[in-house]
TrEMBL record:
<dbReference type="GO" id="GO:0004065">
    <property type="term" value="F:arylsulfatase activity"/>
</dbReference>
<keyword id="KW-0378">Hydrolase</keyword>
<dbReference type="GO" id="GO:0046872">
    <property type="term" value="F:metal ion binding"/>
</dbReference>
<protein>
    <submittedName>
        <fullName>Arylsulfatase</fullName>
        <ecNumber>3.1.6.1</ecNumber>
    </submittedName>
</protein>
<dbReference type="InterPro" id="IPR006311">
    <property type="entry name" value="TAT_signal"/>
</dbReference>
<dbReference type="InterPro" id="IPR024607">
    <property type="entry name" value="Sulfatase_CS"/>
</dbReference>
<dbReference type="InterPro" id="IPR017850">
    <property type="entry name" value="Alkaline_phosphatase_core_sf"/>
</dbReference>
<dbReference type="Pfam" id="PF00884">
    <property type="entry name" value="Sulfatase"/>
</dbReference>
<keyword id="KW-0479">Metal-binding</keyword>
<dbReference type="InterPro" id="IPR050738">
    <property type="entry name" value="Sulfatase"/>
</dbReference>
<comment type="similarity">
    <text>Belongs to the sulfatase family.</text>
</comment>
<dbReference type="InterPro" id="IPR000917">
    <property type="entry name" value="Sulfatase_N"/>
</dbReference>
<feature type="domain" description="Sulfatase N-terminal">
    <location>
        <begin position="40"/>
        <end position="361"/>
    </location>
</feature>
<keyword id="KW-0106">Calcium</keyword>
Length: 472
């Protein structure tokens, strides 16, 4: 990641961000100013493999998510948000505001020359921290990638090494994590549930008395497989440590997915309670979202969720809207109206410019992003709203193509959609409003509106893919 000196950052404050294409951001007009109104805290809660079909307020029928639903009911719920259909490229896009073909060439890698929003906010006077899944580095590096990305503090785990331990039944991302690090030091979690440790770290960080505003990212491992029981599951409450010892492996059981989702929802509620008790609720922008759709391999093969009057499989890896479209909820009582559901389009490239906007920080001079701030949308101003959003993927149940995007560049599917139409780089186009499961593509000359949408979106995709810096 590109390290920003205070001198170089302050020099760049007055400069507007460059744009890659028509989907990019223009000038950022901050909603707050460090010289007038107190700048908001920012709490980003990123779920793992939590598709929209699992969330009640998005129409999910199989599970109960009362705290996430309440966050939406008291804030703004975006119906149309795109990530990528798998974790690593989504996380790079989130941090850098750039689409994958510009800066993502290797699995679990965030390049050192990339500027991240934690770096910008850190240089702009924010305390910064992250808890949970990081994944984007070799933890043997010094300094570690997570330490270069702009975080003052962190509690996370060495994800690559974790897999070998779990295959030997010695611990996994939920129980007895053997690769847990807090601010550079290895720690032994014992029998503590990992998500409880991440919650306590987050609670401690956001509860401290400080004159500085803060950025806190809680990247859950919930609900990534292995599907494991939580502390609220009967098998753990009744069996204790001896029961935990039976759940240290690589593969879980489908039946525990609902327990994991309930626990994720519970933690969302507990964090909101912390904000209320510490008097920070009205001045904290809370974002709940997820990195991609629900999983569908290993024990997730049997997972089905009721959504829009049918049982659906998770869409992870796929470029269907079950894979690329994710839940996205924004909540800040002191800033937003409650109970707003919007059709406006956003994607993960918008997070960097939006957080900078909220913090009153201009983008550093020369920093190009594909995103634009969604902060005006939160205030009811859609005058600069997006015309389209973009994602890409392999449309297969494997991460192979995502792990080496350069090698498989000719096999990727690129998708671009507006509020009604979704276009694939292989020529298919769907009326995503009336055909949300993408079962009836329109042939050329079959429908005049579809033909016009195809022509427009195909041109916009070509313009995007030929603009700026491209690595594949």
């Amino acid at each position: 990641m590109k390290n920003l000196s205070r001198r170089s950052f302050m020099k760049s404050i007055g400069s507007a961000a460059a744009v890659f294409a028509s989907g990019g951001c223009g000038n950022i007009s901050a909603i707050t100013s460090s010289n007038s109104i107190k700048r908001p805290n920012i709490l980003l809660i990123l779920g793992d493999d939590i598709g929209r079909e699992t969330i009640s307020c998005y129409g999910g029928e199989s599970y109960s998510t009362p705290n996430i639903d309440k966050l939406a009911a008291e804030g703004m719920r975006f119906k149309n948000c795109y990530a990528t259909p798998i974790c690593s490229p989504t996380r790079v896009e989130l941090l850098t505001g750039k689409y994958s073909f510009r800066n993502y060439t290797k699995w679990r890698e965030l390049k050192d020359d990339q500027t991240t929003f934690p770096q910008i906010l850190q240089q702009n006077g924010y305390r910064t921290a992250i808890a949970g899944k990081w994944q984007l580095e070799d933890w043997d590096e010094q300094p570690k990638g997570i330490e270069k990305a702009g975080y003052d503090e962190y509690l996370s785990l060495d994800h690559p090494k974790m897999l070998s331990y779990s295959k030997r039944d010695e611990g996994n991302v939920f129980w007895k994590i053997p690769t847990l690090y807090k601010n550079g030091k290895h720690i032994d979690p014992g029998y503590e549930y990992a998500e409880d440790l991440f919650y306590e770290f987050t609670k401690d960080f956001i509860s401290r008395d400080s004159e500085k505003p803060w950025l806190m990212e809680y990247h859950m491992n919930l609900c990534h497989r292995p599907f494991m029981p939580t502390p609220d599951s009967d098998v753990i409450k009744e069996g204790g440590k001896s029961a935990i010892d039976k759940f240290l492996g690589f593969e879980g059981e489908t039946k525990y997915f609902s327990d994991m989702l309930s626990y994720a929802d519970k933690l969302v509620g507990k964090l909101v309670e912390v904000l209320e008790k510490t008097g920070q609720r009205d001045n904290t922008l809370v974002i709940f979202t997820a990195d991609n759709g629900t999983d569908n391999v290993w024990e997730a093969k049997q997972l089905r969720s009721e959504y829009r009057n049918r049982m659906v499989e998770g869409g992870k890896y796929k470029t269907s809207d079950l894979g690329a479209a994710v839940p996205f909820i924004a909540n800040c009582p002191g800033m937003l109206k409650s109970g707003v559901v919007t059709e406006e389009l956003i994607d993960f490239s918008d997070i960097l410019p939006s957080f900078c906007d909220a913090a009153g920080a201009r983008l550093p001079e020369g920093l190009e992003t594909d995103g634009r701030s969604f902060i005006p949308l939160l205030k009811g101003d859609s005058s600069n709203a997006r015309d389209w959003i973009y994602s890409w993927g392999g449309f297969i149940k494997t991460s192979r193509r995502y792990k080496d995007p350069v090698k498989y560049k000719d096999e990727h599917l690129h998708i671009i959609r507006n509020k009604r139409w979704k276009y694939y780089s292989d020529g298919r186009i769907f009326d995503i409003i009336n055909d949300p499961f993408e079962e009836n593509p329109f042939k050329e000359s079959e429908n005049e509106q579809a033909d016009k949408a195809r022509e427009y979106l195909e041109a916009e995709l070509a313009k995007l893919r030929s603009s700026g810096r491209r690595l594949w």
